[in-house]
């Protein structure tokens, strides 16, 4: 019988590429991960890993096993959800990952509603960049997450992760005066740190109208972004949720670009009472804020 814990290690190695991040996300030591994967090879009787120096690559047989692992984990998650649904009260821990601009107007009222309606449910809210959310879900560090995509930066489908729409926002050009994106070819730009969705959006949106932005400042805090815009230090792209607290002088020009937010969770967990309650609370928190909700 194959050990599910070892299968999870192989699955994470497939997605993360090296042993060190696998060990970190699943709270093993790197040597323990290596030992468990070697034991899995012995149990299966086939070669699963190709080792070249310090690098490790999965064999075709290992990739096939990872595909089966996704199905196995989904069934186990569904079984856990069914058991939880049989309980008379909602209890346990629910770990929610959220991006910064959603904390005041969406996550906070949702957390208050969940705590009021389900006092036995322990909430753990973590602020993360959306680019990190699916890895945290897959590794078990989160149970539900708010993930994003922009026009020009689509969200890739992730095996083992389900999602459903939560809200849509317009993206604006923040500048000292009304202007168009094309007119900012020679402007200084303020963007997120490289590797974030906001940084990728800035680069790709500008490239789509014919130029590469001159990014002078990097910050992942939209409050800091708008303060820099107000101080004449550049222009930036800002979604609806971040546009409500602009310093004086900043003008928002709506663009034909959207940010879409989804609720993501491990496949098989959607019917878990805790996940269901959180999704209902998050939808309820979005609607009063005037956001456009997907059908």
Automatic annotation (TrEMBL):
GO terms for cellular component: protein-DNA complex. The keyword Zinc-finger does not apply. One of its GO terms (molecular function) is DNA binding. PROSITE patterns: HTH_LYSR. Keywords: Activator, DNA-binding, Transcription, Transcription regulation. Residues 2-59 form the HTH lysR-type domain. Gene3D superfamilies: Periplasmic binding protein-like II, Winged helix-like DNA-binding domain superfamily/Winged helix DNA-binding domain. The keyword Lipoprotein does not apply. Belongs to the LysR transcriptional regulatory family. PANTHER family: LYSR SUBSTRATE-BINDING, TRANSCRIPTIONAL DUAL REGULATOR HCAR-RELATED. This is LysR family transcriptional regulator. It comes from Mycolicibacter engbaekii. The lineage of its organism: Bacteria, Bacillati, Actinomycetota, Actinomycetes, Mycobacteriales.
